[in-house]
């Protein structure tokens, strides 16, 4: 997915590398997946293949969803207004229609109200629909989780209205995990359009004139749906100022007071992560999984932890398909079917992007390499989506009590303990590897839901071979395997004797890859691709890092940033062929030596190497781990290793060019919101000062 953003200031702010979408005051936050400056072009840039325009008859059928339709005396219903001059007119008519509708349908003690958002407590001017539908008891709350439906109205000269509404319904899905689908309405003085969004699709009617014969029945179907929403019956929302959710895990167990921690894109898997403040160690993960594209994450995790908890991998308490009245919750469009699944997980931590120092990030990434190579060797499992989002870090190292005892496995903390620290377990790590929903169980698929997609992952972190169809061409020289530093060699040989002996490659290799060379078919994901993803994670952290309260700004070079975020993959030209010495902030410049050493192993594709152990599946892991371990040992006492980075990332030098984000667009939106909010505050302050000046004069 590509998104175009025109920055109006001299420097641009790179996105925080997080998938977190805060819902604490959701009305003040732009919709996930849609940039507020380009919502009118959401179909083209954000969701190019998930929008469907349908006729009013089809929408009516979808709204009633096979339920018995109410018997309505249309002569008793209010007629549409002859003219609509503002949002309040639409609200008055729809409220009168809703009130009349209540006499024909069964409904609870509460009623629904159409409210202009200017009447809602704490509503901000940012990402605010023109009016919303809320229960009468919730009208004082400005939180998206209390909204029942979103509405937009036409405004002269505003070309973005319909795009905004589609975007708002997508965001509404994120705020209401208890709803399977949500609805919206776009109003114009002459017509209206209805929207229905679910994880498969955004459906939109063509324009329906207010006075058409089918207009009132269609609006009644829409209002009926508001009183009978499509819900997940195992989940309920607690109507408090800060909404929480209750989930029935089984017949004998429910979990209360769950708050939303993170959400993914609304259209697609619609991942929702929730936990309790009182017990953050228990995490709920919900997704709508498409049949026919991946192995199921729950069975993959069961296989990983069979025989004892696998060190460094998120632990699974339960995995279930979510049911309504004994039937799976599904959404469907044509040949695409998604069903809702729920995982109860046991571990929590912060994303690796929040790790403060070079020492911490290097030790964590060494451990990620250790986890992925041993998972492949012992469990025949490839993660296939190593990214900053999928690596969590605990505050302290942990070896769980029921830890599996695995031969030839050891984490960085065992080789490099903190001064004064007693000897730790070789299975003790701060890392928690998560999100195995695109993982592959090699040779013995674990409950596959269809054909495996081999080219998958998060684009910015994907190995080049996965992201591109052809390998880089040219003449390449691969370096020999790095020797373990003599100060570590004894311990390394004692703990990891087999790999120390097996990967004793002391000669470089030169080979050529001709232009237009193609990978052998069928293309399959390889373990070395996960190792390359670790390199990109380290590069992302290193490029964005700047020390706390830097004495001077050192912006990111625009070409380097564009290479990371552009939809056209130019990472090979700008980072692998040669790595510019000025890529990093001067405080963290010593990391250049490590990155430069690691990138040399990526210059030529190992699939075409012929000598030594370069064809071994674990070769690149071993090379990277030795590079990192040696660097940690050799720089152990250097001050830069413990210099904490600032929470704010480095800016990007001015280019005058459009910038494109990568991965989940929520990251960029949060940054764009802050910029625009600052701009609005500055403009307001200028107006206030001008007013005061005139008053004095």
Automatic annotation (TrEMBL):
Residues 7-22 have a biased composition (Polar residues). It holds the Pfam family Pkinase_fungal. GO terms for molecular function: ATP binding; protein kinase activity. Residues 1-22, 649-697 are annotated as: Disordered. Residues 255-560 form the Protein kinase domain. Residues 678-689 have a biased composition (Basic and acidic residues). InterPro entries: Kinase-like_dom_sf, Pkinase_fungal, Prot_kinase_dom, Tyr_kinase_AS. This is Protein kinase domain-containing protein. It comes from Serendipita vermifera MAFF 305830.
């Amino acid at each position: 997915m590509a998104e175009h953003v025109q920055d109006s200031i001299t420097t641009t702010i790179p996105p925080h590398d997080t998938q977190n979408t805060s819902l604490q005051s959701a009305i003040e936050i732009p919709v996930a997946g849609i940039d507020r400056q380009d919502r009118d072009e959401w179909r083209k840039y954000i969701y190019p293949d998930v929008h469907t325009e349908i006729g009013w008859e089809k929408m009516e059928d979808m709204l009633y969803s096979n339920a018995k339709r109410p018997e309505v005396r249309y002569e008793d219903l209010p007629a549409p207004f002859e003219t609509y001059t503002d949002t309040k007119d639409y609200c008055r008519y729809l409220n009168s229609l809703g009130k009349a509708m209540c006499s024909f349908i069964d409904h609870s003690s509460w009623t629904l109200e159409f409210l202009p958002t200017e009447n809602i407590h704490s509503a901000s001017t940012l990402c605010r629909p023109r009016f919303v539908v809320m229960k009468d008891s919730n009208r004082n709350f400005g939180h998206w989780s209390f909204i029942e439906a979103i509405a937009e109205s036409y405004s002269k000269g505003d070309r973005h209205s319909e795009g905004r509404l589609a975007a708002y319904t997508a965001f509404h899905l994120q705020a209401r995990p208890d709803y399977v689908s949500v609805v919206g309405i776009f109003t114009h003085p002459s017509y209206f359009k209805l929207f229905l969004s679910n994880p498969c699709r955004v459906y939109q009617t063509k324009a329906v004139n207010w006075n058409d014969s089918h207009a009132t029945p269609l609006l009644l179907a829409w209002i009926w749906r508001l009183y009978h929403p499509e819900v997940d019956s195992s989940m309920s929302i607690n109507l408090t100022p800060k909404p929480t959710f209750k989930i029935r895990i089984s017949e004998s167990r429910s979990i209360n007071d769950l708050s939303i921690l993170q959400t993914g894109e609304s259209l697609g898997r619609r991942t929702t992560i929730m936990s309790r403040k009182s017990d953050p160690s228990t995490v709920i993960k919900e997704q709508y999984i498409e049949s026919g594209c991946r192995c199921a994450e729950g069975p993959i995790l069961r296989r990983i932890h069979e025989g004892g908890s696998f060190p460094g991998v998120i632990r699974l308490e339960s995995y279930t398909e979510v049911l309504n009245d004994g039937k799976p919750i599904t959404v469907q469009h044509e040949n695409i079917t998604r069903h809702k699944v729920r995982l109860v997980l046991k571990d929590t931590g912060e994303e690796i992007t929040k790790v403060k120092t070079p020492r911490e990030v290097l030790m964590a990434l060494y451990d990620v390499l250790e986890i992925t190579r041993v998972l492949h060797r012992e469990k025949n499992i490839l993660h296939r989506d190593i990214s900053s989002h999928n690596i969590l870090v605990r505050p302290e190292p942990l070896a769980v009590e029921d830890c599996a005892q695995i031969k030839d496995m050891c984490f960085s903390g065992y080789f490099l303990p903190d001064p004064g620290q007693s000897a730790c377990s070789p299975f003790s790590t701060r890392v928690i590897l998560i999100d195995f929903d695109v993982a592959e169980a090699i040779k013995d698929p674990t409950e596959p839901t269809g054909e495996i997609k081999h080219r998958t992952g998060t684009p910015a972190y994907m190995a080049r071979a996965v992201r591109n169809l052809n390998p880089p061409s040219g003449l390449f020289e691969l370096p020999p395997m790095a020797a373990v530093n003599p100060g570590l060699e004894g311990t390394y040989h004692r703990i990891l004797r087999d790999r120390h002996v097996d990967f004793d490659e002391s000669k470089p290799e030169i080979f050529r890859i001709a232009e237009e060379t193609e990978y052998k078919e069928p293309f399959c994901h390889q373990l070395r691709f996960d190792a390359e993803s670790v390199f990109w994670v380290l590069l992302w952290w290193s490029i964005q890092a700047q020390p706390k309260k830097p004495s001077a700004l050192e912006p990111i070079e625009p070409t380097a940033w564009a290479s990371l975020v552009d939809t056209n993959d130019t990472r090979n030209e700008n980072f692998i062929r040669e790595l510019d010495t000025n890529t990093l902030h001067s405080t963290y410049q010593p990391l250049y030596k490590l990155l430069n050493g690691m990138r040399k192993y990526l210059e030529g594709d190992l699939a075409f190497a012929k000598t030594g152990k370069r064809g071994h599946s674990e070769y690149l892991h071993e090379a990277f781990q030795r590079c990192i371990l040696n660097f940690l040992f050799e720089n152990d006492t250097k001050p830069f290793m413990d210099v904490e980075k600032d929470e704010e990332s480095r800016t990007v030098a001015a280019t005058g060019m459009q910038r494109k984000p990568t991965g989940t667009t929520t990251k960029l939106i949060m940054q764009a919101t802050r910029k625009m909010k600052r701009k609005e505050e500055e403009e307001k302050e200028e107006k206030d000062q001008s007013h005061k000046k005139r008053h004095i004069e």
